[in-house]
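[Q] Does anyone have a clean structure-token version of this?
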Amino acid sequence: MKLQTHLIATSLLFMGLYPHYRHMALLVFVGGFFIDMDHYFYYIMKTKDLNLKKAYHFCENKTYSDVFCIFHHFEFIAILFLIGFFSSYVMLVSIGASVHFAMDIIHIAVSRRISREISDMSWIARLVKKIKS
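[A] Here you go.
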């Protein structure tokens, strides 16, 4: 999904939460928009290049089957929510991340082969697949 789409959705979520949470609502951006930094980290690991524009184009058409993005997994979201029960700061991050993740899943369902990619959005499923092969 395009970064702009995540930026707009995260901005709307921020505006909805701002009246209640004030400046803390900015944490939604950490989860909803900056979660995509894992794509950049993957690019750096693969190419040893720090160019953000090249990283964007490199990751633009990749699928979850093509890359390993640490923050884009069911288990990561679950851990965030568990920690969020003890910290309102982390809960706001997890809300943003969950919206981001849900938007990615909808995008995959509409545009690509969902069964293969959804299984690649789980660390456990990837591990099982490696063990079997």
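[Q] Thanks! Anything notable?
[A] The radius of gyration is 15 Å.
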